[in-house]
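Quick log. Single chain, no ligands specified.
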Amino acid sequence: QVHLVESGGGLVHAGGSLRLSCVASASGAIFRIRDVGWYRQAPGKQRELVAAITSGGRTKYADSVKGRFTVSRDNAKNTVTLQMNSLKPEDTAVYYCNPVTFVGEFVQPYDSWGQGTQVTVSS
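-> predicted structure:
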Protein backbone atom coordinates (compact mmCIF):
# COMPACT_ATOMS: atom_id res chain seq x y z
CA GLN A 1 0.00 0.00 0.00
CA VAL A 2 1.15 3.55 -0.75
CA HIS A 3 2.38 5.47 2.26
CA LEU A 4 0.32 8.61 2.85
CA VAL A 5 1.49 11.79 4.53
CA GLU A 6 -0.86 14.17 6.31
CA SER A 7 -0.25 17.84 6.97
CA GLY A 8 -2.04 21.06 7.78
CA GLY A 9 -2.64 20.71 11.49
CA GLY A 10 -2.28 23.61 13.83
CA LEU A 11 -3.76 25.61 16.65
CA VAL A 12 -7.10 27.32 16.18
CA HIS A 13 -9.72 28.86 18.40
CA ALA A 14 -13.08 27.20 18.83
CA GLY A 15 -15.23 27.96 15.82
CA GLY A 16 -12.26 28.21 13.52
CA SER A 17 -11.28 26.13 10.53
CA LEU A 18 -8.40 24.04 9.33
CA ARG A 19 -7.78 22.13 6.15
CA LEU A 20 -5.74 18.97 6.30
CA SER A 21 -4.06 17.53 3.25
CA CYS A 22 -3.07 14.00 2.41
CA VAL A 23 -0.55 13.14 -0.27
CA ALA A 24 1.43 10.12 -1.31
CA SER A 25 5.01 9.95 -0.14
CA ALA A 26 7.76 10.51 -2.66
CA SER A 27 8.27 6.80 -3.08
CA GLY A 28 4.61 6.40 -3.92
CA ALA A 29 4.18 9.56 -5.97
CA ILE A 30 3.63 7.67 -9.18
CA PHE A 31 0.74 5.74 -7.67
CA ARG A 32 -2.81 7.03 -7.44
CA ILE A 33 -4.26 7.37 -3.96
CA ARG A 34 -7.20 5.03 -3.56
CA ASP A 35 -9.68 4.78 -0.67
CA VAL A 36 -8.64 6.98 2.25
CA GLY A 37 -9.80 7.36 5.80
CA TRP A 38 -9.18 10.25 8.14
CA TYR A 39 -8.72 9.15 11.72
CA ARG A 40 -7.97 10.96 14.92
CA GLN A 41 -6.72 10.00 18.32
CA ALA A 42 -6.97 12.15 21.40
CA PRO A 43 -5.03 11.47 24.60
CA GLY A 44 -6.59 8.65 26.56
CA LYS A 45 -8.97 7.76 23.75
CA GLN A 46 -9.02 5.16 21.02
CA ARG A 47 -8.29 6.09 17.46
CA GLU A 48 -11.54 6.77 15.67
CA LEU A 49 -12.64 7.21 12.09
CA VAL A 50 -13.58 10.78 11.27
CA ALA A 51 -14.28 10.58 7.56
CA ALA A 52 -13.47 8.44 4.58
CA ILE A 53 -13.61 8.72 0.84
CA THR A 54 -13.42 6.17 -1.93
CA SER A 55 -11.44 6.57 -5.10
CA GLY A 56 -14.73 7.41 -6.78
CA GLY A 57 -15.70 10.08 -4.27
CA ARG A 58 -18.18 8.26 -2.05
CA THR A 59 -17.88 9.59 1.50
CA LYS A 60 -18.61 8.56 5.06
CA TYR A 61 -18.54 10.68 8.21
CA ALA A 62 -18.61 10.13 11.92
CA ASP A 63 -21.78 11.50 13.48
CA SER A 64 -19.71 13.86 15.60
CA VAL A 65 -18.39 15.74 12.57
CA LYS A 66 -21.28 15.60 10.13
CA GLY A 67 -22.09 19.04 8.84
CA ARG A 68 -18.76 20.43 10.01
CA PHE A 69 -16.11 18.37 8.22
CA THR A 70 -15.88 17.66 4.51
CA VAL A 71 -13.59 15.13 2.93
CA SER A 72 -12.80 15.54 -0.74
CA ARG A 73 -10.25 14.53 -3.28
CA ASP A 74 -8.61 15.78 -6.43
CA ASN A 75 -7.52 12.74 -8.35
CA ALA A 76 -5.75 14.87 -10.95
CA LYS A 77 -3.56 16.29 -8.18
CA ASN A 78 -3.51 12.96 -6.35
CA THR A 79 -4.52 14.54 -3.06
CA VAL A 80 -7.20 14.09 -0.42
CA THR A 81 -8.30 16.89 1.88
CA LEU A 82 -10.26 17.22 5.07
CA GLN A 83 -11.88 20.61 5.51
CA MET A 84 -12.72 21.13 9.16
CA ASN A 85 -15.07 23.96 10.05
CA SER A 86 -16.72 25.04 13.27
CA LEU A 87 -14.00 23.30 15.22
CA LYS A 88 -14.63 22.39 18.82
CA PRO A 89 -12.19 21.68 21.65
CA GLU A 90 -13.25 18.04 21.52
CA ASP A 91 -11.84 17.88 17.98
CA THR A 92 -8.36 18.22 19.46
CA ALA A 93 -6.37 15.16 18.44
CA VAL A 94 -3.67 13.84 16.21
CA TYR A 95 -5.17 13.32 12.78
CA TYR A 96 -4.08 10.66 10.33
CA CYS A 97 -4.89 9.87 6.75
CA ASN A 98 -4.60 6.21 6.06
CA PRO A 99 -5.47 3.83 3.25
CA VAL A 100 -8.67 1.93 3.93
CA THR A 101 -11.03 -0.58 2.45
CA PHE A 102 -14.77 0.00 2.32
CA VAL A 103 -16.77 -3.06 3.28
CA GLY A 104 -20.37 -2.03 2.99
CA GLU A 105 -20.98 0.56 5.70
CA PHE A 106 -17.73 -0.32 7.43
CA VAL A 107 -14.29 1.16 6.85
CA GLN A 108 -11.31 -1.03 7.55
CA PRO A 109 -7.87 0.58 7.80
CA TYR A 110 -4.68 -0.93 6.56
CA ASP A 111 -1.80 -0.97 8.98
CA SER A 112 0.00 1.94 7.36
CA TRP A 113 -0.13 4.68 9.97
CA GLY A 114 2.06 7.74 9.63
CA GLN A 115 3.11 10.29 12.19
CA GLY A 116 -0.12 12.25 12.01
CA THR A 117 -0.69 15.98 12.26
CA GLN A 118 -1.70 17.69 15.47
CA VAL A 119 -4.92 19.64 15.59
CA THR A 120 -5.49 21.70 18.69
CA VAL A 121 -8.67 23.67 19.26
CA SER A 122 -8.64 26.08 22.15
CA SER A 123 -11.75 27.06 24.05
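DSSP finds no helices and eleven strands in the chain.
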